[in-house]
Amino acid sequence: MIRFDFRKRKIRGWKRKVRKIEQWKNAYMELNQEALAKYNREYVKVWIAPFFSLQKHKLPLWYKRLVIQALLDIYSSWQQQLAKLDEPYYLKVWIFEKDFMWSQVVVSVRNALHFYDETFEELTPVADLPDEFAVEAAKLFEWKKGFTAVTWFEGEMQADIGDGLYTEEEIQAIKDSAYKIQEYKGEAMYLVKDDIVWVGEKADASERVDNQS
Questions:
Q1: What are the φ/ψ torsions at residue 100 (nearest 5 degrees)?
Q2: How many other CB atoms sit within 10 Å of the CB of residue 15?
Q3: Pick from 56, 47, 80, 49: nearest CA to 5
Q4: pTM of the entire predicted model
Q5: Residue 118 and residue 110: Cα distance in Å, rounded?
Q6: Confidence band for 51, pLDDT divided at 50, 70 and 90
Q7: Is the pLDDT at 136 greater than 50, yes or no?
């Protein structure tokens, strides 16, 4: 029996999908001040239909750049609105390499000001975004490159072997790939790199918080 990889099917209707980027952007250019006041945090992800099905396809570079431009436009709009609050705030753009459609703009204030300080590992300044994400507006931002991590506990891994979810060889491979091993409540904890992320803010941003990552 011939099996087909349906992920290779052409994504149709790109003109319509491009219009949806603009529609999505326009829907979020105005910061939800009510949510920010209530939770001291707000964010917008790339809610562009068909959001979940696009995750299964390889997105063309030109489409990714349009999405990034929209994120930067939202950032700039939120920055202008936040400046009127006359108080410190965290405002960043997160761009993910593997799970690109999880890219987002994030803001936090007041008692949640430092909520995102430890979200990513080993954030290091970089000169620019990689070519695949390069848009002219990104040059006005300062960028740092880091990664997300997945945590594996020794007890859970042994249970997974017992349940037949993983083989001993697979668990050993996970352990070998850990970039850090530490103890948590008497149990070995393995930290494994997951996705690369670029974190950006305006180079002349007046909102910077001391000791931000």
A1: -55, -40
A2: 8
A3: 56
A4: 0.83
A5: 17
A6: low
A7: yes
